[in-house]
Amino acid sequence: MNQPLKQHLIDPEICIRCYTCEMTCPIEGAIVHDANNVVIDADKCEFCMACIPVCPTGSIDEWRIVNTPYSLDDQFGWAELPEQEEILTGGGSDAATSLEALDDAMAALLADAHKGAGGKAKAPATASKPTINMYNLANPITAKVQGSYRLTAEGADTDVRHIILDFGGKPFPVLEGQSIGIIPPGTGADGKPHLPRLYSISSPRDGERPNYGNVSLTVKRHEQGVCSNYVCDLKMGDEVQVTGPFGSTFLMPDDPQARLLMICTGTGSAPFRAFTMRRQRTVGNKSGGMVMFFGARTPDSLPYFGPLGKIPDSLLKKHLVFSRIPGVPKSYVQDQLIVEEEAIADMLTDPNTYIYICGLRGMEEGVEKAFTNIAESIGTQWVALRDTMRSEGRYHVETY
Ligand code: FAD
After folding, report:
1. pTM
2. Does the beta carbon of 218 sit less than 6 angstroms from any atom of ligand 1?
3. Which atom of ligand 1 lies closest to the CA of 109?
């Protein structure tokens, strides 16, 4: 039996037959029309999404999970889109239901990671439109490992690695701040396949290498962790099953003058590496500025410690904060926020400031307290300010 797959379709009831999608599609013959309908050839469509934004009606944004794709002739004959059919996989219809349930579980995981924002997160108004859920458990994409190296010093108590994945020219459109799912091979003690784990993309949208469409990840090895060990042990050329991209709110504003305040611990630095590289490649130092508070135990255990030092303050002002340097009082990101109270207060009062918090869930409480104190110092109530910022797409939390 065929594996279920996602088929891209056009709603014939809404389509106005302007043929813009057909003219925009970079793959010859992937979108065609007859006297009746404009249709998509499932054998040719590569999910590049070029047709989505140009469609004036949105009729192009239709998808069905199918065992056997609808043929061109099927689609030419339609007056309306068929309902989603019941999917039968090798495991029967329950398997399909459970695949969908697993994809829902990934969405729930992401929602849980964002709940520290205190309410429903919203993307910055100027953020680019993200592509999400292009590949799922029923239809993952295979990536090849292009590189893997350790980011923390040998002997440091944390093993964090930089992994580069290549999609072999297949479309995998991402934005800075999004995550992908990695499906570890094998089964758990219950005999069921392992669930995917989410990892933030640490490269910008045009690729780890500009215009190569590859992505990088920043992955910390967890003792006995299923997926982190699998990813950290991958070698060049290994193949990996990937789902996603995921996430439509933890995105950067597409406004070079926006001021970004980024607070992170450990692998929470991944999206901020992507944000920084995006600005480096597009606006350089001519931006509203980025400020980073990055907490780790020691410099040895801080991912990207070396490369970070080379980024000029005019692009990224860095506050590296360490909690375990022998003979030095412990300091955490929230402590350093208070040290920089005046600068932070200035950012809080600027309607063009965007705040991003990413990393260990344990950091949320201290950071909230620091913001409460700083807001009070300027006669403002933090929770009200935070809620306003969030509703304007300017306050983002992703902790796990
Ligand atoms: P699991 O096997 O799921 O185990 C979970 C935990 O239990 C681990 O800490 C493991 O050490 C512990 N454990 C398991 N078995 C045992 C045992 N027998 N004894 C003791 N302890 C045990 N992680 C990153 O590294 N980088 C990222 O950029 C990143 N981004 C994320 C983004 C989002 C939105 C979310 C939700 C999570 C993100 N994560 C990231 C976390 C990641 O998804 C995984 O949760 C993490 O890698 C651990 O997965 P695992 O399979 O290795 O651990």
Report:
1. 0.80
2. yes
3. 36
